[in-house]
Amino acid sequence: MEDFSENQKIAKQLQEHSNRLKNEQLTRVSRNKLTKEEYDAKKGVSCEEPKEWKNQISDLKEDISFGETEAAKIIVKIKEGRQTLAKAEAINEKSRDCWTTEEVRFFDENLPSEWRKELRDLDKEKLELYNQKSVRNKLIKELKAKISELEEIKGNAKLQREAQPGGGFRYYELQNGTDALPQPSELSLIDMGRTFRNTITNAAYQRTFHKDNLLQLLSKYAAAMGPEYVEKRTIENIKN
C-alpha cells in the first residue's frame, strides 16, 4: 500500500517547483543580438511609425467630418428637389389651359425630366460620400490595430545598445515572457507544465494517485525542460 503522507509531501514539493518555474518563465528575459541596421530599423519603427499613423487617423477623421457636412447639405437638396419635382408633376397633370401664369413660369423653370436627373446625380453623390466614409473608417480601424499591435510588441520587447571594448556598440532586442524562451522541439514545456499543474492540484488525484504514475508524469515534465532549469535536477533527485 502506498504511503499517503509521502505522496502528499511529493505532490506539495512538485507544486512548489511548478509554481516557481512558471514565475521564472514569465520574468526571464531573452536577449537577441541585432545588427546595427536591424537596431536602427526597429528603433525607427517603434518611434516614428505610430506618430505617422496617428496623423493619418487625424486627417481621415477630418475628411469624414467634412464628408458628413457635405452629405447633410446634399440630403437637404434632395428633400427640396423632391418637393419641387412633386409640385411640377402635379402641375403637369392638369390641362395646360388651366395653368396660371405662376404655374407656367414654375413649370418652365423646373422641368420634371431635369429634376429627375438632378435627383439621381445627388443620390449618387450622397452614396459616394457614404462609401468614402466607410473606407476611411476601415482605414482608421486598421491603423488603430497596427498601433495597438506595435504598442503590445513594444511592451514586451526593448532595444538595448552596449559599448564594446575597442569601440563601437553591440545591439540587442530584449524579449520578456515564455514565448521568447527557446523550447525543446520534441515537447512543449508550456503544455507539459499546464498538464502537470492541473493533474497534481486535482484533489481526487491527490487521494488516489500511484507513485509510479506520478513519477512517469514527472519524467515527461522534466524531459520538456532544457538543461538550464534548476527544477530539472530537483525532479531527478525526487525520482531517485
Question: Nutshell version of this structure?
Answer:
This protein has 240 residues and is mainly alpha-helical.
Textual characterization of the structure:
- This protein has 240 residues and is mainly alpha-helical.
- It has 2 domains: 1-28 and 177-240, no CATH class; 36-174, Helix Hairpins, CATH 1.10.287.
- It has 8 helices and 3 strands.
- It has helices at 4-27, 36-93, 101-109, 112-156, 189-200, 203-208, 211-223, 230-239, and strands at 29-34, 157-163, 169-176.
- Strand 2 and strand 3 (169-176) form a beta hairpin.
- The model is unreliable at 177-186 (pLDDT under 50).
Topology overview:
Blueprint: H1 4-27, E1 29-34, H2 36-93, H3 101-109, H4 112-156, E2 157-163, E3 169-176, H5 189-200, H6 203-208, H7 211-223, H8 230-239
Antiparallel strand pairs: 1-3, 2-3
Helix pairs in contact: 1-5, 1-8, 2-4, 5-7, 7-8
Strand order of the largest sheet: 1-3-2
- Rounded average pLDDT: 76
What class, by secondary structure content? mainly alpha
Number of strands: 3
Helix and strand run: HEHHHEEHHHH
- Please report which band the strand proportion falls in: under 5%, 5-15%, 15-25%, 25-35%, 35-45% or over 45%: 5-15%
CATH class category of the largest domain: Mainly Alpha
Q: How many domains?
A: 2
Distance between the termini: 20 Å
The CATH architecture category of the largest domain equals Orthogonal Bundle
**Model regions low in confidence, pLDDT < 50 over at least 5 residues:** 177-186
How large is the radius of gyration?
37 Å
Shape descriptor: elongated
| CATH topology annotation of the largest domain | Helix Hairpins
The helix fraction, in percent, is over 70%
Helix tally?
A: 8
Report the sheet with the most strands, covering strand number, pairing sense and barrel closure: 3 strands, antiparallel
Biased composition (Basic and acidic residues): 14-25
Region (Disordered): 1-27
